[in-house]
Amino acid sequence: MIEKSKLLTIGDMSKMTGASAKSLRYYEKIGILRPAYIDPDSKYRYYTLDQTNIVGVIMFCIELDIPLAEFAKYIETDGTMDFRKTIQAGRKEVEKKMTALKKGLNLLDYLEQQIDLTELHKPGEIYMREMPEKIYYVHPCGQSITDVTELEASKAIAELSRMIEIHEMCEYGCLRESTPGGTMYYAFVEVPKDAQVENKRIIPSGTFICRQSEEYQVENTTEIFADYLKGKDSFIAIETDVITGRHKINKPFSELRILC
Fold first, then answer.
1. 186, CA 20 to 30 Å: which among 4, 17, 80, 228?
2. Residue 17: is its pLDDT beyond 90?
3. Which range has the worst mean pLDDT, 45-54, 189-198, 211-220?
4. CA end-to-end span of the chain, whole Å?
């Protein structure tokens, strides 16, 4: 005979664990937490103190986004829970989250560094800065940015988005290559030096002449940097989106660069 005085009501269990009564009933419904006793007359549910640990594990699994259907796999037919397997599964999920959080922190650090660099200069100001060697994956867009069709643009965006997802690099934009034979434009995204991709372009390290603008300006490179391009019939210009501490989300803010 179970002594109800030594058991916890569903309200007690809810207060002790933080799980709502509705959640406790749901756990019972899917078979991962059965009450120790259900009063046959009142249908009130009662739990043992030990079951608070089970509720804690269930809530931990929910926090880690482990489906409760998966949790049920660790409960044997006789009601025994395999805590070791549950912990091992939880550890894998925690490690995944830690990896994702680290990537997120790295991205935030990168963006903050870019804001610091951007805010060193005013729009329209021409300045120099040293840049390390970069490797770009490039996607051809044609001889004029304004003539790029919607289909070509969507293909370029889809391909660059795929590269960003794979390689997790942040710099992207438009590359202009001008030679005596004409001008070609490419959409680009930065990739690691060891990336196994076709259509790579090496941008050497060096001193770059730069200018920020609240509009895209790569097609006007020769006019903007006329003093620096005198006598040159070949050059590469790079335009990349940048951000500021207070950013107008509906208006582009870019940096245009040419190598000295």
1. 228
2. yes
3. 189-198
4. 89
The secondary structure of the chain as a DSSP string is: ---GGGSEEHHHHHHHH---HHHHHHHHHTTS---SEE-TTT--EEE-TTHHHHHHHHHHHHHTT--HHHHGGGB-TTS-B-HHHHHHHHHHHHHHHHHHHHHHHHHHHHHHHHHHHHTTS-TT-EEEEEE--EEEEEEEEES-GGG--HHHHHHHHHHHHHHHHHH----EEEEEEEETTEEEEEEEEEE-TT---SSEEEE--EEEEEEEESS--GGGHHHHTTTTSTT-S-EEEEEEE---SS--TTS--EEEEEE-
**How far apart, in whole angstroms, are the C-alpha atoms of residue 106 and residue 196?**
23
Residue 73: band (very low, low, confident or very high) from pLDDT cuts 50, 70, 90: confident
In this structure, the strands spanning 172-179 and 182-191 are antiparallel
Mean pLDDT, residues 101-119? 86
